[in-house]
Amino acid sequence: MTSTETRHDVLLTVNGVPHRLNLPARRLLSDCLRHDLKLTGTHVGCEHGVCGACTVLIDGKPTRSCLVLAVALDGQEITTVEGLTNPDGSLGCVQQALLECHGLQCGFCTPGFMTTIEAGLKQQPAPTDDEAREMVAGNLCRCTGYQNIVGAVHRAAELKRDSR
Amino acid sequence: MSTQLFGEKVPRVEDQRFLRGQGRYVDDVLVDTPSATLHAAVLRSPHAHARILDIDVSDVIDMDGVHLVWTHEDLAGAMAEPLPLLIPHPALTHGRTQYTLAKDTVNYVGEAVAFVVADDRYLAEDALGRISVSYEPLPAVVGIESARAAENLVHDDVPGNVAARMEQNVGDAPTAIDAAPHVLELDLSIERSAAMPLEGRGTVARWDHDTSRLQVWTSTQASTGVRAAVAAKLELDLGQVDVICPDTGGGFGVKINHPWPEDLLVTRAAQVTGQAVKFTEDRREHFISAAHERAQEHHIRVGFDDQGRVQGLDVEFWHDNGAYTPYGLIVPIITSTQLLGPYKPANYRVRFDSLYTNTVIVTPYRGAGRPQGCFAMERTIDAIAAHLGLDRTAVRAANLIQPDEFPYDQGLIFQDGRPLIYDSGDYPAMLEKIRKLIGWDEFEQFKAEAEAEGRRVGIGLGCYVEGTGVGPYEGAHVHVETSGKVKVATGLTTQGQGHQTAFAQVVADTLDVPMEDVEVVTGDTRRMSYSVGTFASRAAVMSGSAMHLAALRAKEKALRLAADALEADEADLKMVDGSVQVKGSPSNSIALGTLAVLSNPLRYAFDKASQAATQFSVGDQDKPPVDEDDEPGLEGRDFYSPNRSTFASGMHAAIVETDPETAEIKILRYAIVHDCGRMINPMIVEGQIHGGMAQGIGGALYERMAYDDSGQLLNASFMDFLMPYVTEIPGEIDVDHLETPSPLNPLGIKGAGEAGVIPVSAAIAAAVENAEGFSITSMPISPAELYDLRQRHAEHTSTTSARPPKQDGSGEESA
Amino acid sequence: MKPAPFNYVRADSIEQAVEALAGSSDGKVLAGGQSLIPLLSMRLAGPSLLVDINGIAGLDEVRADSDGVHLGALARHADVLANTAAREVQPLVAAALSHVGHATIRNRGTTVGSLVHADASAEMPLILLLLAGSLDVVGPRGRRTIPAESLYIGPLESSLEHDEVAVEAFFPALPPMTGIAFEEVARRQGDYALCGVGAVVEVDGGHVRSARAGFMSVHDVPVVAELTEHLAGMSLSTQEGRVVLEAAVEHAMGALDPAADVHASEAYRAHLARVLAKRVVAAAFSDATHRAATRPAVGSEA
């Protein structure tokens, strides 16, 4: 219950901005981002860790935000889709690649794909086709049939190389 | 004139917000407002069939943070009546719909029983746990066999569990079959599945006491329908209800049904509490309380000649409609008519029973009855080919409607109540294309080589025709603002199809304005209150055409105004890049924005545009500033209402490999030829085809709703309902297009949304059959089922070793 | 799908975690949480207390030495998988880990957590059992080592006491002249397997000296079958060897009791167990032969 449930202090740095929060222990990170921090770009598709729509980066690593308690992340850095846009407001490489390749339709799963690809390209800056597919293998998309998402992984790698 | 946008791969404008995480989906609405939004949760039946003896909510009433708890007894007036039966049909003699909250009995696991509103969803779920309901379980009817047996009834007053029985005839199929040189009989079935968009259902409502208006956001495929339903149930005037469909995380059919119980409960709760109320369905709820589709069993009798030409086709099938029939008979009617595909059986009889079961309701899911029909027809054609020892493409060729036969009347009544008349197409050319694309003629050699290595490969084909763009109508409103920006609205909704881009392309072309000046709004009843909805691959055809017509109206007016302003003849004017220009005299032009100013005789100048406009003298000094037959404003509004549907078509081919040991099935190649008439944006069309195909692969190899005999859904999670990841979809898909324009609409377009999913089960079943050498009559097929089939055929072969099973044989000769 | 309320303790030390658990009869340890949180959200589990050990320093160690691979309770699957030394010392751990969920799950999920969750359709409990590893746990009665063979006592049930915290897992090193293999069949890549089999085969001069195979998803606990008495002295690359292997696998099948579910029948699971066991044991044999040829055992004369 709101009034009686014990709350815990937690410091989350989200997209570079520190937030001091006081939350019930059971608050899922996905709900914390969406409802407490109003960062609604992170979407919730299944709440049991299978679809990948809610994937964010925790200390740079793609993680299902529906499978983590917000209070367990004290002091950690979180990157959401909102943090992938360039500081000048232009689209980041992964975003631009998805646009160019028509890698999204309804856009609901897209944030999870983008955070995953963002981290994946750090590990594999020039993925083979198999690696590109493997990179997004844990994310469900019901609209695109994935062809163009895989294309976008390659395109994003290209854009990242060019921007270096 | 600027470059034509129609037919171009224009990047999508909506992506800008989606990619930045700035889309506004229904669960995002009112997140960032100072006043608190309350959250709803629904207690759902744990029983497939039970009598409700008692509901005790006393432990909830005083819970901190809980604002309201309702059961059926708390509802009054229209809210206490059953939900509407949206699409009545004379054959639906025993239509039934559920109550907003269950009254006396529950008929499926997941049926809404009680409703709670609390400070947040966590608390609302805590409250559900404290409601205690006592049930008297009743025997459950699960599956078509159990429904047909009718040893138990879903509804006491529906004999035989039969909601509807329908029959259509063209010629005399039974007689023609009896007279045919060859006759085959087949039993073919498709299991239950679901649309499963990544965003579930959701509704948010806010009641404004000061204006007595209700504002509703809902993830729907029919916002005008929701509006009318909410107004009727809450007993409000239509004018008091605004419904907005915000960005939507996919629909694929399931969001066409309305009103959901939650739509009504949330809106009513907003009225009662005076606070905004939100319901966001979770995934488990989506599995057990949204809608499913596909489960059908078909018995086919077909008579044909030595060339495989069908002389008579007699189809009887049984459709599992779940516990209620809010969406009428649309799915089985589509199966019964669209089963014919690109073929012309001389005589056709189709009969179906729509049956109640104690399972989630059935409403259209992308393809809507066509995947079943296509599967039934294509398996039949393959069986004919096997029986006659003919090439499967040759038998298809022998049965195709020819290009010079259009318009082709199949002699049936379609789902829209109109005659099933195909408008255009070129099926023989399509068949040639798909043969080339997949390498049909080279496959035998590949198969021989693979078999020499101990591998099993097979090839299959699936052909379909899809009636798209059904009526009754859609409208569009085009408003040129004084800034020159063009604001466009249509009433149907968007679930990811890129309407904001495709419709802007149409309007930008028609008005010759820059694409970036056109802004499209869909699914907002405040902007366009007359609309039907997004289903049946109709959005591009219906609203695309309406956009064009409405833009033409605006164009006519712009030219008329410009003729006055430029003192020129209308015939000498043309629209160029946001202006109207005197032909051959580019300096003699006037911007659309200025014309918008002139269209609205003002006393006051507000900005530069209106100041500039004052130098022109408009109209006749002896006539009123606004003509009697005119209106102020540079706008166009029009509706497109076709006589009947337009028919898209396509053919898919698959090459699969089956593991001789594990029975795993892998798609090696997949090819698609597709004809949706003229394409507004080929990039978007291809995306629709890719996505449809992936859903088709899900339906063919992975996805099914696994109910046990007591009506519990055993796989109600993404762990066990196996939607394909990228790893389950082939890496490359060859897509080719054919464009036979539709003569029925001004743009020559046909729908493209559902097509990709329709023939996949048919093509893959054929390919597996070809690889394995025994018939595949039920889909989806899992490795476990393929293994089981192998075992059965091995036993069969060993017991009847004198006569080896027929290669590629799907049926038994009965003549 | 939101968790019911629970008390929450962020432990700074093992002692503190143990103390907190001791104060509750149904407390649960939160490490990676990739199995636990969905159970909470679906309200299939409702512990009154969660003891979060993520803040305990030093628990994330992945250490490989000549004995084997030591994994701290907070070693994430991804870190174990990426550790080349660990892969070198005991390649079967990595071979199986790559099948655990998807990469994103492996980023957060811990290997020790998976061992404790004791799912018979999970890879790591089987591997611990197959390698005869062990789990160190700390409770109010101190620290103890549970050998894998006494760890898995029932479906989703381990022999940990409710007030004990698993702190370290140990996977013994791959002995010389020994090969491994692991294969599974899942409906989709990353799903729980319909059946998975791992094998460890030791060779001597091109013949089997010892062999064991482990099965997941075909019994309510992971099962390891000792195949040495059937295969000792055989070469599995010969026709005769394959016949003997078939008989050995058939014998192993006797210990399995596959269950049907929505994805597979008993018969199909049993069939997969047979097919995979033959493939995997043969693959482990050729891996051992290969390793013996390229890296002879210490002390051998070559």
Automatic annotation (TrEMBL), chain A:
Looking at the Swiss-Prot or TrEMBL record, what is one Pfam family this protein matches? Answer: Fer2_2
What are the alphabetically sorted keywords of the record? 2Fe-2S, Iron, Iron-sulfur, Metal-binding, Oxidoreductase
Its domain of life reads Bacteria
What pathway or pathways are given for this protein in its record?
Alkaloid degradation; nicotine degradation
- A molecular function GO annotation: 2 iron, 2 sulfur cluster binding
Q: Does the keyword Iron-sulfur apply?
A: yes
2Fe-2S ferredoxin-type domain spans which residues?
8-84
Which InterPro entries does the UniProt record give? 2Fe-2S-bd, 2Fe-2S-bd_dom_sf, 2Fe-2S_ferredoxin-like_sf, 2Fe-2S_ferredoxin-type, 2Fe2S_fd_BS, Beta-grasp_dom_sf, Diverse_Oxidoreductases
Q: Gene3D superfamilies this protein is in?
A: 3.10.20.30, [2Fe-2S]-binding domain
UniProt xrefs under SUPFAM superfamilies: 2Fe-2S ferredoxin-like (SSF54292), CO dehydrogenase ISP C-domain like (SSF47741)
Protein name (record): Carbon-monoxide dehydrogenase small subunit
| The organism of origin for this protein | Halopolyspora algeriensis
Q: What is the lineage of its organism?
A: Bacteria, Bacillati, Actinomycetota, Actinomycetes, Actinomycetes incertae sedis
TrEMBL record, chain B:
Q: Is Oxidoreductase tagged as a keyword?
A: yes
Instruction: Report the InterPro entries cross-referenced here.
Output: Ald_Oxase/Xan_DH_a/b, Ald_Oxase/Xan_DH_a/b_sf, Ald_Oxase/xanthine_DH-like, AldOxase/xan_DH_MoCoBD1, AldOxase/xan_DH_MoCoBD2, AldOxase/xan_DH_Mopterin-bd_sf
Q: What residues does the Aldehyde oxidase/xanthine dehydrogenase a/b hammerhead domain cover? A: 20-139
Asked if the Swiss-Prot or TrEMBL record annotates the protein with the keyword Signal, the reply is: no
Q: Which GO terms describe its molecular function?
A: iron ion binding; oxidoreductase activity
The record's annotation in SUPFAM superfamilies points to: CO dehydrogenase molybdoprotein N-domain-like (SSF54665), Molybdenum cofactor-binding domain (SSF56003)
User: Keywords, A to Z?
Assistant: Molybdenum, Oxidoreductase
Q: Where is this region: Disordered?
A: 615-636, 790-815
Pfam families listed in its UniProt record: Ald_Xan_dh_C, MoCoBD_1, MoCoBD_2
Transmembrane region(s):
none
Protein name per Swiss-Prot or TrEMBL: Carbon-monoxide dehydrogenase large subunit
Question: In which organism is this protein found?
Answer: Halopolyspora algeriensis
TrEMBL record, chain C:
The yes or no answer to whether the keyword Cell membrane is present is: no
**Protein origin, superkingdom:** Bacteria
> Sorted alphabetically, which Pfam families does this protein's record hold?
CO_deh_flav_C (PF03450), FAD_binding_5 (PF00941)
Keyword Ribosomal protein tagged = no
Please provide, alphabetically and separated by semicolons, the GO molecular function terms listed in this UniProt record. Answer: FAD binding; oxidoreductase activity
Q: Which PANTHER family match?
A: XANTHINE DEHYDROGENASE SUBUNIT C-RELATED
Question: In its UniProt entry, what is this protein called?
Answer: Carbon-monoxide dehydrogenase medium subunit
The upper taxonomy is:
Bacteria, Bacillati, Actinomycetota, Actinomycetes, Actinomycetes incertae sedis
